[in-house]
Amino acid sequence: MSTDITLYGDRFWISPYVYSCFVALREKELAFDVSEIALDKKEQHHPEYRDRTITAKVPALRHGDFWLAESSAIIEYLEEAFPAPKHRALLPTGVRERARARQIISWLRSDLLVLREERPTTTMFYQRASRPLSEAGQTAADKLLRAANLLIAEGATALFGGFSIADADLAFMLQRLALNGHPVPDKVRAFVNAQWARPSVRAFVERVRPAYEHY
Question: What is the distance between the alpha carbons of residues 8 and 18, in angstroms, rounded to a whole number?
Fold first, then answer.
């Protein structure tokens, strides 16, 4: 398929940031191509890709002759370039709810580093973790679950009544624990399971992945 939009992502399909943009595009029901960048072979540093993305990172989005990197920027761009009601909104409509969603999205990208290191996304899509969390890792897990408990209403399958990209991002982070057998409160697990069942998310989760090569 040849479209006006291309999403550039890692070839192992394990990046939470590529995931976020992929889900956003699917939720917007936009036709798009995907192009895999071999980070293990440093393809992101090839001049043609590096200079167009400016930061030489994945994900990157090409829309016509416009290139953009950084997942948060891509999500905001898609929200403005393809607005509701023609396309599904990625953020809540209320000013305070939108601010809260942006807080969650930003927090998940800037905190919980120890948890991301000890429960990397390879443990979600390739081989499960074999070591228990360190003390610091458990502290990070407790912090994530405390925040999730505050954010997720009892019986809710979305944070703001209807889908937002913050739901998908939070569910992804929580799956670092759930998929690796860590105890997760029932209401949090129900939220995660509902988000993981969305067609947009399943399309990412069920991608055929090559054998993983560490990089």
Answer: 8
CATH class of the region 95-200: mainly alpha
Whose CA is closest to 170, among 197, 153, 151, 184?
151
Over the stretch 168-180, which tens digit does the pLDDT of each residue have? 999 999 999 999 9
**Which tokens go with 177?**
């624990």
Q: How far apart are CA 2 and CA 129, in angstroms?
A: 39
Amino acid type, 31 = A
CATH tag, 5-88: 3.40.30.10
Q: Record the pTM.
A: 0.95
Helix (H) or strand (E) holding 68: strand 66-69
3-state secondary structure of 63: strand
Which tokens belong to 10? 């890692």
Q: Tokens at residue 127, please?
A: 């081989």
Q: Where are the domains of the chain?
A: 5-88, 95-200
Please name which of 173, 68, 85 lies closest in space to residue 124, comparing C-alpha atoms: 173
